[in-house]
Amino acid sequence: MLSFEEKKTIFHSFNLKEKKISNGRVNFIYPESKQKGQVLATQLHPSGNGYVIGKYMSKDTIMKHRYKVDSRGWISIRDFSKDELMSVISDAMKSMDGIQEVTEMVVEKKDNPPIAPNQALQNSSAFEVYPGSCLFAWLGLTLSSMEFGYLVWKKTLQKYVGINI
Fold first, then answer.
1. HSE-up (13 A, CA, CB side) for residue 149
2. What is the arithmetic mean of pLDDT over 34-47?
3. Rounded CA separation 35/72 (Å)
4. Helix, strand, coil proportions of the chain in percent (round to 5)?
5. 76: buried, middle or exposed (CB in 10 Å: 19+, 13-18, 0-12)?
6. CB within 8 Å of 60: residues ≥ 6 apart
7. pLDDT score, position 73
């Protein structure tokens, strides 16, 4: 089992930001995270206990390295060796970057066998990818809400005031 200082040194080797919390414990922050949270490791304690985030990791990665992810989505690193700790930090950073292993991504179509990712990208009939599709959806919702409001007011003015627009 690694000591508290050895674990901190390993975390610092990944250029993570250390944030002190209560009772001598520290968290390590990954500022480049594309996920909701930026905390990569939490409650690293002088006793050697601590947790690395595993809730964004793929099932394949978890099974491959036999990580034990608790119900909160954290992996206990109490008894990890140096290599295991470096591996779990690297996997957690990849998962927080949104990078997934290509082998796990499978696109399925109805009544057809699964399509491998590289085939799906080449076959445009499998799915369409629109850059900024979230933005387009938001704009569409906003515009349709505005149009609905306009129609409601138009009908109201016609009915009660007698103005035709």
1. 6
2. 92
3. 16
4. 45, 15, 40
5. middle
6. 101, 103, 104
7. 92
The secondary element (H helix, E strand) that includes residue 142 is: helix 133-156
Amino acid at 46: P
Distance CA 87, CA 132 (A): 33
Quick one: tokens of 165? Answer: 């627009």
pTM of the model: 0.60
State the pLDDT confidence band at 142, using cuts at 50, 70 and 90: confident
Alpha carbons 4 and 12: distance in angstroms, whole number: 12
Q: Which two tokens stand for residue 82?
A: 């140096």
Specify the higher pLDDT residue, 122 or 104.
122
CA distance 80 to 87: 10
Name, in order, each residue with C-beta under 8 angstroms of 33's C-beta and a sequence gap of 6 or more: 40, 96, 97
- The single residue listed with the structure tokens 């957690």 is 92
Helix (H, G, I), strand (E, B) or coil at 115: strand
Q: 44 and 37 in contact (C-beta within 8 Å)?
A: no
User: What's the first-to-final CA gap in the chain, in angstroms?
Assistant: 77
> Pick the residue with more confidence: 116 or 110?
116
| The two structure tokens encoding residue 108 | 């399925």
